[in-house]
Amino acid sequence: MQTKPVTSLLCLAIAAACQLLGQAAAKPGTDVLVLANGEKLIGHLERATDTSVVFKSDTAGEVTVKWSAVAELHSSDKFAAIPKGVKLRHKEDTAAIPQGPVSATAENLEIQTPPQPKTTPTTDIGNVVDEASFEHAFEHVSLWQGWKGGATAGIALTEATQKSRNITAGINLVRSVPDATWLDTRSRTIFGFNEAYGKVSQPGYADVKTSLYHLGLEQDWFLNPRLYGFVHAGLDHNFSQGLRLQQVYGGGLGFVVFKKTSQELDFKASLDYINQRFYAPGSTNSLIGSVFSESYTRTFAHGILFNEAAGLTQPWNVTSAYSAFASAALTFPVYHRLGLTLGALDNFLNNPPPGFRKNSFQFTAGATYSFQ
Q1: Which of 136, 169, 188 finishes a domain?
Q2: Could you tell me the pLDDT band of residue 25, with boundaries at 50, 70 and 90?
Q3: What is the mean pLDDT of residues 125-134?
Q4: Residue 312 domain boundaries
Q5: Quick one: 89 exposed, middle or buried, by C-beta within 10 A (0-12, 13-18, 19+)?
Q6: Which of 136, 156, 180 is the last residue of a domain?
Q7: Cα→Cα distances 250→44, 187, 215, 319, Å
């Protein structure tokens, strides 16, 4: 019986399997997080601050753990450990930031830098960022890069005794410089366009039409991490309220009430020139007033995004010509960059022409494509 060839083949197979297992075990980028209760997570270190570690486990997904619950943390990937209070604005400012593989306990974080490791108390850490993101944050970005946001579209058609057409569309974009959340923002550009159009036709009756849109552009310049100056312009049309066109041009100050990785709340106040043109003949207002507004964004688990904004426009030369708005939108990720958005918009105009209601409410549902 010839067993040598079979035995040799079996030995070669076992050796190859062991080599593959050894390569898999030594796979770069596989990090280890050991918790104080003895639980061990295998995966990738995402980022860290002075209070917590964000770790993406191969089995549990992304988890956030307080430093007090960390026994050991090891990553062979390179990270930059930015101390608290250090201001980074230019590429040359990064030379003093330690970068390298990470080892940490609840009390100290160690970066493996030559010729000797750099140890920092975890309470003194501002941010721990992966090397690729750290270097990318200081690269030059053209005007056409760095935009975040999405485009939404919805349509409803009815063909019967009545013919109905309803179309909603919108695009909302924000560009921050720099775009890294762990760096202080120097400038920000906000662009938004939203439109809704509807028409109902029936033989023997006049057509019923709905048409409204809002176009807005704002440029912010940050004086410090919380206070910024801005200029803005806005165009509004609302057929349902008899408003042919409203133009707003002005500028003012904004204040970041709080800003975290997952949420931000801003307040703004401005001084503006406002021009209102209505469908009624000779009905035009030239106003000097102020816009007081707030905006809030929040990212929930699984990438669910919530946007809310509200504002009051108060003219000072014709105080009765005030207006207000409130909007909210919830976007659910569906597949890759595609999602579903549910939104509501309420507009109040105190001085519409006779025959038009002061309040206009709109609910929309549509497909959304996220740009980043």
Answers
A1: 136
A2: very low
A3: 90
A4: 148-370
A5: exposed
A6: 136
A7: 47, 18, 15, 18
